[in-house]
Design goal:
It is a single chain. It is rod-shaped, with a radius of gyration of 52 Å. By secondary structure, it is mostly helical. The longest helix has 112 residues.
Length: 492
């Protein structure tokens, strides 16, 4: 037997015992008046009092042994039947039969058809025996026949009414318990669904956190690559400066070109080697830039996936919110039904209030999740915009690298021409001067381009740092989301 049923039995047994005691004492006090009128003797009163006392002692002893026992209803009923039978069968007055009615009514609280039928049958039997004794004693006449007829009619009507009430109440109680059981099953299903949704949200949040960790690592690689590009461009600038100095030296040496032609050839060859190194650096820079672009594309895909997952979480949170509202409504309906059920529904009303409180807490938690997801979406959009800007800068940087490579190719061609011209220096001195001036112009333009590429690389590095900061913020938000979802673990 469940704990709730035991509490109910204990409460009903206490009420029935209290009413039985009050009726017995009232019946005993009524006979005090009979003694005062001379209708009863003191001996009869003491005997009747002993019957009542024995009955009440048995009732109280059994009650305090086990206050929630089912057999107490039969102990109370047969104990009071003994008192009632003694009062009726010892020539009680015409109203003595009415003392059974209050006790009979209290037995309805048990919702036990068997108890109602046994009590009704015994009451009828006692009244039949009482009338039979009157007839046998010769006291039955036309004057009291009407009274006994009314008594029998009242007894039969009350017995039928109480039995019918017990049947109806039992049916209603059975239907209510069936409804409560079904609602409990529905609520359990809903709670299971909520816990499944919470577990899904937690898994998705952990997945997003892993993605953000990968994004941070990718951003670190991008930052390192951009810094290497900047360092490479700085080296290129130094090489260009060196090339410019060498070109100026060539201009100075032109006046003595005949004596130093061999040195000029050597210098030209060294210049070609330096240009090859420069082109190698540019190729490496181009490769790094392409890697930066590829990583940027991966970051964009990751951010898009993050936004999609966040939207899925928001949809799930919306489902939880709807479920909490429905649960709250079901709890309200259950409270109304329990109020209609009266005393029998009080226990279920407490459960309904707890369910409604849990639904309200779920609704508040869902709203908090929606707020956090809103902030997460906003931060994800900001990060996506920043990454898009980085991608644009990277594209411009690629174009500049390609332009630099072309300039290096031009310089190599010019130096090759210069080498050939030196071998025939006497006849090509004027051409050499012109070519040297062209080299100086190209070096100047290359220096300007290098400075621009260096500035763009520094800007890209700054953007990468900003992206890392934004990624850390998103990671913190995801961590907070996971902590909120872990609040559901206590229900798992």
């Amino acid at each position: 037997m469940g704990e709730t049923q035991l509490q109910k039995n204990k409460m009903v047994n206490a009420v029935v015992l209290r009413i039985t005691t009050i009726i017995s004492v009232a019946l005993l006090l009524g006979y005090v008046g009979e003694i005062a009128k001379g209708h009863r003797t003191v001996t009869y009163f003491l005997t009747f009092g002993a019957v009542i006392l024995v009955s009440l002692i048995i009732d109280f002893v059994c009650y305090f042994q086990n206050k929630s026992a089912t057999y107490l209803r039969y102990v109370f009923m047969f104990g009071y039947l003994a008192v009632y039978a003694f009062a009726m069968l010892t020539k009680g007055n015409d109203l003595t039969f009415a003392f059974w009615i209050p006790a009979f009514i209290t037995y309805i609280l048990y919702f036990d058809l068997k108890v109602s039928i046994i009590a009704s049958v015994n009451m009828l039997v006692i009244n039949i025996i009482q009338v039979a004794s009157v007839i046998i004693s010769g006291d039955f006449n036309s004057e009291n026949s009407t009274t006994y007829t009314i008594v029998f009619a009242v007894v039969i009507i009350i017995a039928y009414a109480i039995i019918q009430t017990t049947v109806t109440n039992s049916k209603i109680n059975s239907e209510a318990m069936s409804y409560i059981t079904n609602e409990q099953e529905k609520q359990q299903y809903m709670l299971d669904d909520i816990l499944k949704v919470a577990a899904t949200v937690k898994d998705n949040a952990n997945h997003v956190s892993d993605i953000m960790q990968e994004l941070n690592e990718s951003n670190s690689i991008v930052t390192s690559a951009v810094n290497e590009i900047a360092q490479g461009m700085q080296n290129n600038a130094e090489s260009i400066e060196q090339q410019s100095q060498m070109s100026n030296s060539i201009q100075d040496v032109i006046n003595t070109v005949s004596n130093n032609s061999t040195n000029m050839v050597s210098i030209a060859e060294k210049s070609i080697d330096i240009l090859e190194l420069g082109r190698t650096d540019v190729d490496n820079l181009k490769t790094q830039s392409l890697q930066v672009s590829s990583i940027n594309n991966q970051v964009v895909d990751s951010m898009n996936s993050l936004r999609n997952k966040t939207q899925e979480v928001k949809d799930i949170a919306s489902i939880i919110f709807d479920i909490s509202n429905q649960t709250n409504l079901l709890a309200l309906n259950a409270s109304i039904e329990s109020a209609r059920a009266g005393e029998a529904g009080r226990g279920f009303a407490v459960v309904a209030d707890q369910i409604r409180n849990l639904a309200e807490e779920t609704r508040v938690s869902t709203e908090n999740i929606n707020n956090i997801l809103g902030e997460l979406c906003h931060n994800a959009d900001s990060t996506a915009d920043a990454i898009s800007n980085i991608e644009d800068v990277s594209n411009r940087q690629n174009a500049l690298i390609e332009l630099t490579d072309n300039h290096f190719a031009d310089i190599k061609n010019m130096l090759s021409t210069l080498t050939n011209d030196i071998e025939d220096v006497d006849s090509m001195i004027q051409s050499l001067v012109s070519s040297n001036e062209g080299i100086l112009d190209s070096v100047g333009r290359l220096s300007a381009v290098t400075e621009e590429v260096t500035a763009n690389s520094e800007e890209a590095a700054s953007m990468c740092d900003n992206t890392l900061e934004k990624s850390d913020q998103v990671k913190d938000i995801i961590s907070e989301l996971v902590n909120n979802v872990e609040a559901f673990n206590k229900y798992l």
